[in-house]
Amino acid sequence: MDRFISVIGKIHTEIGAERGEGQTAIANEAKQVAAQNKLTAQTRAEQEVIEAEAAARVQVIQAQADADEMLAKAQAEAEATRIRAEAEAEANAKVAASLTEALIKYTYAQAWDGKYPTYYGGSSSTMPVIDLR
Asked: What is the pTM assigned to this prediction?
């Protein structure tokens, strides 16, 4: 009987040891799963930060491109306005240089419709023209 109790004790010890090893293995596996989950979460968070930074850089680049486009457009419009103004000034200078008293009289004569004015006046009064024919 002592031998039986001794064998039973050994079996019981071995079963307890196996249970302890099993529980240790389960605990180790749970630790590994938790560590992997933590690493996965950290990786996702880092990836989200990287994506957010990239999106912000894209927005900055787009805004700079828009600003550069607006500046180029404004400079082109300013240059066009300057060129038109220079051309108009040159044309006015040529017209002014070509004006003579004879040309002015000729222009008046060309524009005259053959009718005399109905009123003559100065700065203080106007008087009707009376046809005495």
From this structure: 0.45
